[in-house]
Design a protein that fits this description.
mainly alpha; Histone, subunit A; 75% helix; elongated
């Protein structure tokens, strides 16, 4: 699963108020993909531990804090 490069570039421009090169957006894409996978995997474990099949916001927050 990969977030669209154009979306990442647009968001980076909005936050940084500066131009973003393709290599910069590509590197951010790789970082975000890894972070998304890590947080999701941890949140899934937390949801299962709570006896649920659905990941809730609290699972995502806790997973992010633990990583």
């Amino acid at each position: 699963m990969t977030l669209p490069l154009a979306t990442i570039e647009r968001l980076m421009k909005q936050v940084g108020k500066i131009r973003v090169g393709a290599d910069g957006a590509g590197e951010m894409q790789a970082i975000l993909d890894k972070k998304l996978a890590s947080v999701t995997e941890k949140a899934a474990v937390l949801a299962k531990h709570a006896g649920r099949k659905t990941i809730k916001a609290e699972d995502v927050r806790l997973a992010n804090e633990q990583l």
